[in-house]
Structures are given as structure tokens and as C-alpha cells.
Design brief:
Shape: globular
Low-confidence stretches: none
Number of domains: 2
CATH topology of the largest domain: Rossmann fold
Distance between the termini: 57 Å
CATH superfamily of the largest domain: Nicotinate-nucleotide-dimethylbenzimidazole phosphoribosyltransferase (CobT), large domain
Radius of gyration: 20 Å
CATH class of the largest domain: Alpha Beta
């Protein structure tokens, strides 16, 4: 399926089911509105599922996409690029933070190498779907060609489709990629019009000594890219291979009418690109957490839905998205399991 064909399969969430959930909340055994934002989340889940009450998600899967970045050569990161491949192996081996949290919330982790600098056979458990060995330096030239970008989107869509076919009923987005907060800042600035200074932060660096280099790289990339705001062109020019793969995850999730819980600033930048490509995707996205990174609330601001949690996380991997999964389950369970007021109060 081509990118255009995938986009054309996506429809908005069901407004009638959402309205039914909203009305049901007024009849449950509680004061109306007393569960706050959990009620709005349940209403969204009903719209996504197309029925009220919505099913309670029981098989969440987080897709962790990995890629390296040519902008690393600009000195934007404390860490060598080899750390990306090492962390992918750690995720596949079950030893990363995302694995620990996935175990705690009953989720499955899928690791996909869409563009690391690693060579040879990938570690066991890593899906080798490398489109190329890292992106180009986005300060000097487009990070990807359009063809490479669409190929990476297809990789993410394939991973999501396989998870959904195997029984997943909720998707979460995660990533690994040294230096990927720099292209994330580029994407957020380009897609929202916010100043680079407002969305460029420390990232995984130990302190802010490299932040000025990152800001210079973001400004240079945006100046090089110019005023073109075609969503696919922006993603290819300024994004990473893992960003593109996560766009594919989001699009495939929406096409299958599955909720997609979005992680932090990197996943959020990818989700912004997905919404730019297909505005109807917005109704399927759940901002999982408020990243401590500048720009970490850009997706929530765009959607008009606050992040579910704020724990000052800035790790990535999908950790914040998974921590929000119990809230998603609870929102659906309230609509499914709660008694109505008239069933517990004598007339």
C-alpha cells in the first residue's frame, strides 16, 4: 500500500459513539464530570472504537524505532553514535527501561532498526528494516530523500500492522537514536511555527553545554530548508528515519481504528508530522506524558488534549507512553464496568 493509499483509508473517529459515551457518563453512579479528564479520554476511546462502551485495551504494543543522524557530526550530543545500536540491542534483550515498564503494565515491546549506523547482523529480537545507515546532515542537505522517507514510513506501518494482526489493541510509540532531539526540534519548529529557541533543549546530554550548538544546528537546518511546509517534504528534509517510521505506526494505527499513545518530544514530533499528512489522525492520538524537553507539549497543544501524566521524563523509548496505558484502560473500564445511577438509587 502506498502512502497516499494508506492516508485515504483513515476516517475520523465515530462522532455518534463519542456522543453516546458522553451521555453515558452523565448517567453513571457519580456526579457528572467528577472523573475529570478521564471522562474525556473514555469518550475519545468510544469514538475510536466506534461503539460505547469501548473495549478495555488488553494487549498494548510499543513500537520502538531506531535510527542515527548525520547532524551528530555537528557536536550536538555527548554520546557516540554507537550507543544507538547498543541501546537497540538492550531493548531487544529486555534490559532497557521500556522493557521494565512494559512488563509492569502488561505490554509487548517491538524493536525495529530503521536506520542505525550499525553493520552486520542485528542482535536477536531486532527487526532489521534499515532504509539507510543514518540520515544525512540536515544542516547541509535534506536528511532523507522523499523515497527514503516514504520507505521508512512503510517500515513503521508494517510493524504496526503486524502487531495489530497478532492481536494488539493499543499502540504506543517509542524510539532510540542518539542526537534525535535536534531533528525533533526542527520538525516541531517547522510544523508549528514556534521559534527554535522555544523547542531546543538539552536532550540526553549531561548538561546544557551543547545546547547552543543544537540551537545553531536547528536554525541552520530551518534556513537551509526554507519556507516549504509540505508535510512529507518537511519530514524528509528535517526528520529522522525513526520519526518517519513512527509516522507509519500512527497512520496504520488510525487506519485500523486503534488508539495510539504517543511518548515524548521525539514521538510527539513524529505525530505532528502524521497529523500534518492526515488531519483525521488527530482523533486517534493520546498524548501520553509531558516531556521535560522544550517542545514536549507541542503535540498536546496541537491536539488540544493535555498529556495524561507529567513525571518530568526525558528518556524516550516509549517509557512515558507505557506509563499512561493504565489510565487509558481505566478510562475505558469506567464506561464498561460502572453501574448507572438509576440502578443503585431507589426511585
Amino acid at each position: 500500500m502506498t502512502l497516499d493509499e494508506l492516508v485515504q483509508t483513515i476516517r475520523p473517529p465515530d462522532a455518534d459513539a463519542a456522543n453516546a459515551a458522553r451521555e453515558r457518563h452523565t448517567r453513571l453512579a457519580k456526579p457528572p464530570g467528577s472523573l475529570g479528564r478521564l471522562e474525556a479520554l473514555g469518550t475519545q476511546l468510544a469514538g475510536i472504537a466506534g461503539r460505547c462502551p469501548p473495549p478495555v485495551p488488553s494487549a498494548p504494543v510499543v513500537v520502538v524505532a531506531a535510527g542515527d543522524h548525520g547532524v551528530h557530526a555537528r557536536g550536538v550530543s555527548d554520546w557516540p553514535q554507537s550507543v544507538t545500536s547498543a541501546m537497540v540491542a538492550t531493548v531487544a534483550g529486555g534490559g532497557a527501561a521500556v522493557n521494565a515498564i512494559a512488563h509492569a503494565v502488561g505490554a509487548t515491546v517491538t524493536a525495529v532498526d530503521v536506520g542505525t549506523m550499525g553493520s552486520g547482523t542485528p542482535p536477536p529480537g531486532v527487526r532489521d528494516r534499515r532504509v539507510r545507515a543514518g540520515t544525512r546532515d540536515l544542516t547541509a542537505e535534506p536528511a532523507m530523500t522523499i523515497e527514503e522517507c516514504t520507505a521508512a514510513i512503510a517500515v513503521g506501518a508494517e510493524a504496526a500492522d503486524e502487531a495489530l494482526a497478532a492481536g494488539a489493541d493499543l499502540l504506543a510509540t517509542g524510539e532510540v537514536g542518539i542526537a534525535n532531539t535536534t531533528p525533533s526540534a526542527c520538525l516541531i519548529a517547522a510544523l508549528t511555527g514556534v521559534a527554535p529557541e522555544a523547542v531546543t533543549g538539552r536532550g540526553a546530554n549531561l548538561d546544557d553545554t551543547r545546547t547552543s550548538r543544537k540551537l545553531d544546528a536547528v536554525k541552520s537546518a530551518l534556513a537551509r530548508h526554507g519556507g516549504d511546509r509540505d508535510p512529507l517534504g518537511v519530514l524528509a528534509s528535517l526528520g529522522g528515519l525513526e520519526h518517519a517510521a513512527l509516522v507509519g505506526v500512527v497512520l496504520a494505527g488510525a487506519a485500523a481504528r486503534a488508539p495510539v499513545v504517543v511518548d515524548g518530544v521525539i514521538s510527539g514530533a513524529a505525530a505532528l508530522a502524521a497529523v500534518a499528512l492526515c488531519p483525521d489522525v488527530a482523533g486517534y492520538l493520546i498524548p501520553g506524558h509531558a516531556s521535560a524537553e522544550p517542545g514536549g507539549r507541542a503535540l498536546a497543544d496541537r491536539l488540544g488534549r493535555p498529556p495524561l501524566i507529567d513525571l518530568e521524563l526525558r528518556l524516550g523509548e516509549g517509557t512515558g507512553a507505557l506509563l499512561a496505558v493504565p489510565l487509558v484502560r481505566s478510562a475505558a473500564a469506567v464506561l464498561t464496568d460502572m453501574a448507572t445511577l438509576d440502578s443503585v438509587v431507589d426511585p
